Amino acid sequence: MPVTNVTKDLDARTIVITAQFPAPVERVWALYADPRQLERVWGPPTYPATFVDHSLRVGSRSTYYMTGPEGDKHAGWWQITAVDEPHSFSFDDGFADADLQPNPDLPVSHNVYTFEDRDGGTLATFTSSYDTAEALQQVLEMGIEEGATLAINQIDAFLAS
Predict the structure, then answer these.
(1) 109 bridge partner residues
(2) CA-CA distance, 96 to 128, in Å (whole number)?
(3) Residue 120, CB half-sphere, CA atoms under 13 Å: how many?
(4) Which residues have C-beta within 8 Å of that of residue 139, sequence separation ≥ 6?
(5) What is the largest CA-CA distance in the chain?
């Protein structure tokens, strides 16, 4: 499994997931840059994603929804805040309503995804921070750790296909 560590820190209001992929940084970057590839691994296996809009450009907004096994849809958005291709990108990630508009009643995470060459592959670090410990606790109770781990663990099989 690619995920090698998950660290939750309520005091720092962060969750950090590290993963190792047997592919070069440029290949892992391409997965996140291309919405058709990204939707194959964004979200747990039983909640595949569909990206309506996606571009890794500072200032752009990505919108997506995940479809559950019963046909239920769960929407979200990214606001891209920094890009250093192919090494890192930063974005705010929030929940959205059925019209893909931000839902102000649910937490927003501030994310930094980094990719570095390691042992012939890529070491990826996924850092999510929240404005409050309560917001982090809320998404942990919603299953963010399990969902993110299941999603990231799909990447190896996708890269090998």
Answers:
(1) 93, 130
(2) 18
(3) 1
(4) 107, 109, 130
(5) 43
CATH numeric code, 3-160: 3.30.530.20
pLDDT digits (tens, 9 = 90+) for 102-161: 999 999 999 999 999 998 999 999 999 999 999 999 999 999 999 999 999 999 889 988
Residue range 68-104, pLDDT digits in tens = 999 999 999 999 999 999 999 999 999 999 999 999 9
Domain ranges of the chain: 3-160
**Long-range contacts from 113-119, C-beta under 8 angstroms, 24+ separation:** 113/32, 113/88, 113/89, 114/87, 114/88, 115/25, 115/28, 115/29, 115/86, 115/87, 115/88, 116/25, 116/87, 117/24, 117/25, 118/20, 119/20
| Rg of the chain, C-alpha, whole Å | 15
What lies within 8 Å, CB to CB, of 101 at 6+ separation is none
Could you tell me if 64 and 50 are in contact, meaning their C-beta atoms sit under 8 angstroms apart? yes
Distance CA 48, CA 118 (A): 29
